[in-house]
């Protein structure tokens, strides 16, 4: 957050960061809110895309991230929480990873499905962490 002479801008940025769980100055213990927001966004997107593929009977675009077997039994929320717990990435990395995921899917004209999400998510989080958190 950049400090400006206008205190309103600083307060607005602080409120926005706090709303999505990126502000750790509040002393709240536990997972940032951005984890649950990201998992719910991804889960809704997967449900929408998979039902759309069933209705249209269109084949899913095969990418290097697509699994060939059934999706992992771990939910997206559990997966994101596990990555956050055992990695040293910041909550900002998760937001950037979501942006990377969307950009990749738009570029290949693909959709997010349960066979793609885990591999694509860990890869995009790793790239985001390299961009943001590496010193």
Automatic annotation (TrEMBL):
Q: What is this protein called?
A: Cyclin
Provide this UniProt record's keywords sorted from A to Z.
Cell cycle, Cell division
**Source lineage:** Eukaryota, Viridiplantae, Streptophyta, Embryophyta, Tracheophyta
Leader sequence residues: none
Q: Which InterPro entries is this protein grouped with?
A: Cyclin-like_sf, Cyclin_PHO80-like
User: What's one Pfam family the UniProt record gives for this protein?
Assistant: Cyclin
GO process annotations (BP): cell division
Q: Does the keyword Cell cycle apply?
A: yes
Gene Ontology MF term list? protein kinase binding
Q: Which organism is it from?
A: Acer saccharum
- This protein's superkingdom? Eukaryota
Q: What family is it from?
A: Belongs to the cyclin family. Cyclin U/P subfamily.
* Alphabetized SUPFAM superfamilies for the sequence: Cyclin-like
């Amino acid at each position: 957050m950049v400090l400006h002479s206008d205190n309103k801008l600083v307060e607005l940025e602080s409120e926005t960061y706090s709303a999505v769980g990126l502000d750790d100055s509040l002393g709240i213990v536990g997972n940032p809110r951005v984890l649950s927001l990201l998992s719910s966004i991804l889960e809704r997107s997967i449900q929408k895309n998979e039902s759309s593929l069933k209705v249209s009977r269109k084949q899913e675009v095969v990418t290097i991230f697509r699994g060939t077997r059934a999706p992992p039994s771990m939910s997206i929320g559990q997966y994101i929480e596990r990555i956050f717990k055992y990695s040293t990435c910041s909550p900002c990395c998760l937001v950037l990873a979501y942006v990377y995921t969307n950009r990749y899917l738009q570029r290949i004209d693909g959709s997010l499905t349960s066979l793609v999400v885990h591999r694509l998510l860990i890869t995009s989080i790793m790239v985001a962490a390299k961009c943001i958190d590496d010193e």
